[in-house]
Amino acid sequence: MNTSTIPANRGTLLDQAYELAQTLERRLQHAIRGREAVIDLLLTALLADGHVLLEDYPGSGKTTLAKALGDSIEDDQPHDEIVAFRRIQFTPDLLPSDITGVTVFDPDTGSFSFRPGPLFAHIVLADEINRTSPKVQAAMLEAMAEKQVTVDNVSHPLDELFFVVATQNPRDQAGTYPLPVAQHDRFLFKIRMDYIEREAELDVLRSARERRQAPGQELPRVSRSAVVLARRTVESFVHVDERIHTCLVDMARSIRESPHVTQGVSTRSLVLMLPALQACALKRGRDYVTAEDVAYLAPFVFAHRMELAPGIDDASEVIRECTRPAMEILTRSTLR
User: Fold this and answer.
1) Where are the domains of the chain?
2) What is the DSSP secondary-structure string of 31-94?
3) Element spanning 136, H or E
C-alpha cells in the first residue's frame, strides 16, 4: 500500500480530489469566518456522499455557508433541470409536493408532465426541518436515502451530487415535529454550532464588504462532475485497513452494551462512516485512514444515533468512555 502523503501537482485522481477539497475549503473560508471546523466536516460529508444536520441558532451563518457551497459548484450539465442551490424554509403547512414537485396537465398536448420541485438541486438547505409535518419529512427521507422522489406513483431520480444541509434550532422546540430515529440515521453528521470566538467575530465585521464580493480568479469554482469524480476517487483509492473495521464494530458493540445507553448505534452508521473516514484522510493529505480519523469523526457520526439513559446528557463523553478500549488497541497498531 502506498503510504506517502499526497504530493502536490501530480496528475493523479487523488491529487485532483485533494486539490478540489482545498479549493472548496478556501472558497467557504472566504464567505464565512470562524467556522473552520464546521467547514471541514461539511466538505468531508460532501466527499463522503453523506448529509449534514446542523443544530444552530438564528444568524449563525448556515444559509451563507450552504449558499457559498452551492455557488462554488459549476453545473457542467446545463441542459438538465438541476440548479446549483435551493433553500427550503420548512413550515407546518408545507406539503410533500411543495418540495418534490407536481404533475401538471398540458392542455396543448393533452398529456401530463412532471414539474420538478426545489429538491432538484445540487445543494439543498433544508431550513428548520423539524418544523414540518411527518409527511414532508418522509418525502425528505426518500430523497436523502434513495436520491429520488416519487410523485403520483412515478419515481424521478435526483442528481448524483444531491447533498442536503439541514438545520434545526435546539432551543426553540415549540410547534416542532422532532425528527424520527430513521431520519436522524440518514444524516452522516450532526454538528452543533455555537457562537464563534471574539477575534473571529471581529473579523466578520471587518470583512463584511470583502465577503459580499465573489472570490477572485485564484479561487475558481469546481465542476459538478469533478465533485462526483472526487467521491469515486476517495472510495476507490483511500485505503481502510481491516483493523479499522474491527475497531468500528467493537466501538459500536461497546456503546450498545453501555448502561448509559438505551439505544445503540446502527450497523448502517458503521457503513456510512467508512467513506467519511476516507474523505477525512484525503483532506489531511493521506491515502490511508488512521486512528486519529476515527477518534475525530466518531462523536459526529454516533451521537445523534444514540438514545441515552435518563439522567445522562453528554453523548460525547459516553462515546469516549465506550470507545476507549477499541481505540487504544487501534492506536497501538501500525496502520501504515
Assistant:
1) 10-219, 238-333
2) H-SS-HHHHHHHHHHHHTT--EEEE--TTSSHHHHHHHHHHTEE-S-TTSS-EEEEEEE--TT-
3) helix 134-146
Asked if the domains 10-219 and 238-333 are classified in one and the same CATH topology, the answer is no
Q: Are 147 and 106 in contact (CB under 8 A)?
A: no
Angle at 50 between CA 171 and CA 19, to 5 degrees: 115
Q: How far apart are CA 101 and CA 141, in angstroms?
A: 15
Give residue 333's identity as a one-letter amino acid code. Answer: S
- Among 267, 214, 216, which residue's Cα sits nearest to residue 245? 267
Residue 336's pLDDT band, with cuts at 50, 70 and 90, is low
φ, ψ of residue 74 in degrees (nearest 5): -90, 130
Cα–Cα nearest to 302, from 194, 188, 193:
188
- Domain 10-219 sits in CATH at 3.40.50.300
Say yes or no: domain 238-333 is CATH 1.10.8.80.
yes
Query: pLDDT class for 197, splitting at 50, 70, 90?
Result: confident
Q: What is the mean pLDDT of the chain?
A: 88
Quote the pLDDT of residue 283: 96
Q: Can you name the residues that pair with 83 across neighbouring β-strands?
A: 121
**How much of the chain, in percent, has pLDDT values that exceed 90?**
61
Query: Contacts from 217-221 at CB under 8 Å and sequence distance 24+?
Result: 219/23, 219/26, 219/27, 219/30, 220/23, 221/27, 221/71, 221/72, 221/73, 221/74
Q: Name the more confident of 254 and 179.
A: 254
Longest alpha-carbon distance in the chain: 71
Helix axes 315-332, 291-302, angle to 10 degrees: 160
pLDDT at 3: 43
